Amino acid sequence: NAGVTQTPKFQVLKTGQSMTLQCAQDMNHEYMSWYRQDPGMGLRLIHYSVGAGITDQGEVPNGYNVSRSTTEDFPLRLLSAAPSQTSVYFCASSIDRNTEAFFGQGTRLTVV
Amino acid sequence: AQSVTQPDIHITVSEGASLELRCNYSYGATPYLFWYVQSPGQGLQLLLKYFSGDTLVQGIKGFEAEFKRSQSSFNLRKPSVHWSDAAGYFCAGGIQGAQKLVFGQGTRLTINP
Fold it and tell me: Would residue B28 be called left, alpha or beta, if left means φ above 0 and alpha means ψ between -120 and 50 degrees?
């Protein structure tokens, strides 16, 4: 079992560029989520999905879009990258929103 | 508001010493509680979880945690730490009907040889 797979592991973007962070899980979990991790801030929820076709905003959604066309995939799109989006991004999946989450290895994003 | 607090940002202990990492929660009802470990450059791995029942929970890598309702705490313990335990530790809580898990800010553990 691969669990939760994120790509890429590292990315450098210029301000204003767009990109998509990929996330895939093979555990048939309904609930998937995206977090960003900044020093001293812990994990902050960006967007989440309770199933295919259903997404909602978390604590810090501005500047990010998501979609969930399949149970397996939950990509995160940065529309116009800003230096404030420099962070480590984690995708997670779980059976439902309040049970144990399984995390990917993370994507370290730098916006210059 | 629902919250999870880890009062210690950074803790240093000597190899072989005992460890206790603090976690306090604020929920209207008994939450589900989790401890995760994050090694440098890695994702978060679940150490243990509490849903109900026995208040002392055993986890992987020799860790345990005790749920204390009277103190609203779920502290993580290990009797003797190893250098490989140096990592970030995150406490998280959830409750039926809530939007999401709530994570504490994390405690960074350093091990002195």
Answer: alpha
Distance, in Å, from the CA atom of A27 to the CA atom of A108, rounded to the nearest integer, reads 24
Each residue's pLDDT tens digit, A63-108: 999 999 999 999 999 999 999 999 999 999 998 877 788 999 999 9
In this structure, what DSSP letter does residue B72 have? T
Q: Give the chain B residue whose CA is nearest to the CA of A35.
A: B103
Chain A residues with CB-CB distance to B90 below 8 A:
42-43
- Strand bridging mode A87-94 / B19-21: unpaired
Cα gap A103→A27, rounded to integer Å: 12
Contact A58 B98 (CB under 8 A): no
- pLDDT tens readout for residues B53-94: 889 999 999 999 999 999 999 999 999 999 999 999 999 998
DSSP characters for A8-26? Answer: -SEEEE-TT--EEEEEEES
